[in-house]
């Protein structure tokens, strides 16, 4: 099972890029962020023609999340608990083929200090609280999305010019560390502990051309899923396409669950003459 996360940075303007990626890479599940579109403008028909069912929660400006899946998904939750007055479209949760997928778009928080950074930290605290209930449950869960956090200095090409950015602040990183301490596995860093891996390249100062990137898109695995992690990567070719998002799709591949493997072996044995 291949699960991906991709901040599309505008689903209407970058739909050709999205469709090309889906056709070429064929993820089973794709979590999208920053749709920048109202619900009525979501390209449901085009995605269905490409072979993907969709759940989405749109919004104008910088928000909006969606879960695409080859198998129909069962929607579980459309908002992050903890603040009924929060009207940002930043969280969507659905069950797909026995795995609970949580698609999130954590606030950027800039400029900091200020109300936007306060909102980022408050949202992060709500995520930590909700994630604790998920990690302590029996259901396999993937937390996937644009976390807007660079976990360590190893996750950025050069931290010097970003020291004042909300993505690198000690408070942001401490929240991410507390989240992982619940028992989540940072899939990319788990498989590539000693290699620089980037998922975002700013549009300015030739960051893409110089591979001056950041790692802010993460896929965190429930303890029951961590042993099933087979592979992970970043589809960097997408970032090099014309009119590309400043993010590249990030993905993991999970082995089949033991029960599914056993059922498959049983079916195979029955088919033998």
Automatic annotation (TrEMBL):
Its EC number is 3.1.11.2. Mg(2+) binds at residues 7, 34, 146, 148, 246-247. SUPFAM superfamilies: DNase I-like. The record marks 247 as: Interaction with DNA substrate. One of its GO terms (biological process) is DNA repair. It comes from the Bacteria. Pfam families: Exo_endo_phos. Residues 4-247 form the Endonuclease/exonuclease/phosphatase domain. Keywords: Hydrolase, Magnesium, Manganese, Metal-binding. InterPro entries: AP_endonuc_1, Endo/exonu/phosph_ase_sf, Endo/exonuclease/phosphatase, ExoIII-like. The record marks 217 as: Important for catalytic activity. Its cofactor is Mg(2+); Mn(2+). Probably binds two magnesium or manganese ions per subunit. One of its GO terms (molecular function) is metal ion binding. The keyword Hydrolase applies. The record marks 148 as: Transition state stabilizer. The active site is at residues 105, 146, 247. Belongs to the DNA repair enzymes AP/ExoA family. NCBIfam families: exoDNase_III (TIGR00195), xth (TIGR00633). This is Exodeoxyribonuclease III. It comes from Ramlibacter algicola.
């Amino acid at each position: 099972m291949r699960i991906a996360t991709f901040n599309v940075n505008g689903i209407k303007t970058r739909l050709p890029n999205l469709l090309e990626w889906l056709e070429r890479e064929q993820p089973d599940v794709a979590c999208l962020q920053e749709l920048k579109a109202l619900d009525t403008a979501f390209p449901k028909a085009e995605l269905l023609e490409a072979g993907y069912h969709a759940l989405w929660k749109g919004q104008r400006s910088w928000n909006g999340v969606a879960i695409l899946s080859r198998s129909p998904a069962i929607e579980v939750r459309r908002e992050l608990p903890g603040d009924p007055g929060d009207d940002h479209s930043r969280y969507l949760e659905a069950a797909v083929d026995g795995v609970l997928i949580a698609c999130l778009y954590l606030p950027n928080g800039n400029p900091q200090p200020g109300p936007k950074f306060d909102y980022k930290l408050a949202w992060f605290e709500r995520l930590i609280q909700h994630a604790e209930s998920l990690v302590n449950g029996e259901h396999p869960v993937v937390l996937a999305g644009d976390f807007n956090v660079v976990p360590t200095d190893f996750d950025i090409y050069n931290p010097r010019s970003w020291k004042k950015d909300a993505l690198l602040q000690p408070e942001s990183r401490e929240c991410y560390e507390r989240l992982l301490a619940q028992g989540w596995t940072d899939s990319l860093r788990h498989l590539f502990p000693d290699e620089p891996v980037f998922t975002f390249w700013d549009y300015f100062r030739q960051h893409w051309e110089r591979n001056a990137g950041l790692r802010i898109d993460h896929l965190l695995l429930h303890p029951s899923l961590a042993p099933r992690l087979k592979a992970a990567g970043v589809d960097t070719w997408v970032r090099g396409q014309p009119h590309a998002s400043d993010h590249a799709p990030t993905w993991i591949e999970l082995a089949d669950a033991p029960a599914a493997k056993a059922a498959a072996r049983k079916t195979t044995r029955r088919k033998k003459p």
